[in-house]
Each structure stands twice: as C-alpha cells, then as structure tokens.
Amino acid sequence: MLVLLAFIIIFHITSAALLFIATIDNAWWVGDGFFADVWKVCFTVNSTNCTDIDDSFAYYSTMQAVQASMILSTILCCIAFLIFLLQLFRLKQGERFVLTSIIQLMSCLCVMIAASIYTDRRQDIHNHNWHFYTLTAEGTYGYSFILAWVAFAFTFISGLMYLILRKRK
User: Fold this and answer.
1) What CATH number corresponds to the domain at position 97?
2) Burial level of 3, CB count in 10 A (0-12/13-18/19+)?
3) Chain segment 2-17, per-residue pLDDT in tens
4) Number of structural domains, the chain?
5) Where in the sequence is the signal peptide annotated (predicted)?
6) Could you tell me the residue range of the domain that residue 81 belongs to?
C-alpha cells in the first residue's frame, strides 16, 4: 500500500511539474532562429530579441484564453494535491477521494482546452500577426506544447486513479 501511495504522489507531482514547465517555458512553437509561446515571441539572430504578446496582437483574446487555461490547470493541479494530502488524513477508511478526483479532472479539462485552442488557432495567430511571426512559418510545435498534451494525459489518468482509489489502513 505504501508503494502505491508513493507512486500516486510522484505521479501527481510529475503532472504538476509538466504543467509548470508547459506554462512557463518559451517553446510552444520553435524553429531555426526563433521560439514562441503563449507569452512572447523571441528571435535569436545575433542576440535574443523578445516581444511580449499584448493587446496589440490580433487574436490577443485567443492567447489570453490559452494563458488563463494553462494557469488555471496548474493551480487546480496543485490544489488537488493539497486536498489529496488533507483527505489522506481526514477521510474514513473505505471512502473515495472524489473531491481530489473532480479537481484533478477539472485541471485536465483546462489543459486540454488550452492546448486545443492553441492547436486550432495557431495558424490564424501567426498569419494575422505577420510582423511578429515573419520567420516562424517553417517552425514546428515545441516541447512545451508537447508537454502540455502529456500533462493532459497525466492529469486525466491521475484524476481517474483518485476516483477509483479508496482509503485503506
């Protein structure tokens, strides 16, 4: 039982770490000489020149939705972990970790929404902000974007694990 508990805790911490990296790091769209994420666009010709994504961007509200969803998913994942630790000591024997599961599945939903919006609207964002994304046409999805989808899978699996898990001695 102790091994299962350690696995669940490590799995949850890994999910949170993936969410933090995907949200913070600047690698949602990368290529030779540039990298972009939901916060800024950077070019590395001779030195790194970054432009923050602000309200002068077309589709700024779309990027705000991605930003907000990623932040919310990270916060919900951390809250779910704290609630799991509280429920670990407060639940009666045989009860399920339903509240933890619901919050973790909400985190899963938020990261899925953020990654889906970015997947769907990336081309429009780049085309309508050509003065910022002139060199980015030959780019590919970066590791932060991939980590967001991996975090989706991890939060979904851990949410299901909490739903199935019962407290034992």
Assistant:
1) 1.20.140.150
2) exposed
3) 788 889 999 999 999 9
4) 1
5) 1-16
6) 1-167
